[in-house]
Amino acid sequence: MCCPKRFLVVGLGFLGLLFSIGYRAVFALVMVDVTKKTSSHQKCPVNESDHSRYLSLAGKVTEQFSQTMNTAYFVGSLLTQAPGGYLATRFSPSRICGISILFTSILMLSLPFAIPLNKWLTMVIRFVQGVVEGASVPALNGVISAWAPRTEKSRMITISYAGAYISPTVAFLVTGFTSCYLSWHSSLFIYGGCGVLWSLVWFLVIHDTPAQHPGIGEQERQLFEEEGPGHRGGNRQVAYSIPWRSIFTSLPMYAIIVGSFCRNWIFAMILTELPQYFHDVFSLSIDEIGWRTAVPEVFMTIVTVTGGVLVDKLIKSRKCGITTTIGRKLAQCSGFGIEAICFFVLATLGKSTEDRNVAVIILCVGVGFSGLAISGYQVNPLDLAPQYSSILTGLSRCGALGAIMSTSIAAAIRGCAELADNILDSRSGTHGRRGFLRTICSGNKTRLGAISRKQELDKSR
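^ thats the sequence. predicted structure below, dont judge the formating
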């Protein structure tokens, strides 16, 4: 018996996000490595044998400028989120997704040459990467929307998006190990090459809808006839009939955008600032930073997948009066709430070895349970209007403004670090700034109210 084709969509979606979202973590950790000063606490075989390989960048590319490069990526990504959603509705969402990841992978392969050459060229490449990659997630949501039966929506989205949330784990581990024992740029080549290969496989085997797939089995075809969304994929008629007024006057849509803003704020901070936190506060080597920043993401991936299955079962069973709306609200608020509390606690820690271990435990709890929120705002576009899920996802991804703001604040605070050191005492100086940053990030999440109800957009279908 052949594997159901919707499982193939989910599996490749998982891998696509694993690579494309992982690019952010790879670059962030590489820049921590190439901009750091030598230290007796940060020894690796490559460092000891060949300082000239990359340590000449230290002092030329400052940590603040490195943060600004991360911001440039998120600015570029913000520009193409909504247009990417429209393109996926107007044309083939699977092709838009594949092209997006293919080109950002090629740009990833160019970074090992650009980083030693010119810091401004590197920033431009990061910005263009963001522009190109911005369309990938809205397009992927469009593909999954067509392939998700009504009773499997949460689990299909959460399993696919688990690739995004375990991507920092894999990226930090791979980058930490290869930077320490191979070369500083080896992870850039590994990830870029994997992204190119993934794109080629995606183009060959993925179709926009079950109806367009020539190899779909009879049992799966019957399932889609009974529970499938029944839309036709991207085409001109669908694009011309988008209910723009209903979308822009929908309170649930704005609730999704707020959820996306909060999620992007903290996720970008974890990807770009957490490695720097362990480097500055605890003076760890690059390989140790890699595994310590990776562990919390493993817990989040587990919670993301199991939470999606649990929410689907609760909604399907209707136990305790849990409807689709209530299930989304519970997942959203519990995920963000637990993470917020943990980051407040993280801000109170010191710099001892015991505090270092406690920090990892707190991050595992907070980041781990944040995976519940994916069954809230991330799945909600498929509840509201499956036919227009690419559009709704593209608009909600404008919440990437949160990533821009959080990384910009990180860069600004780092730029003021010298002044802060003169004001704060030796214990609270470096670490206090990190704690303050995380307090800001987590505090924004607690403002998120209940996630959306099915309202205006259902009427427009």
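The CA atoms of residues 82 and 394 lie 4 Å apart.
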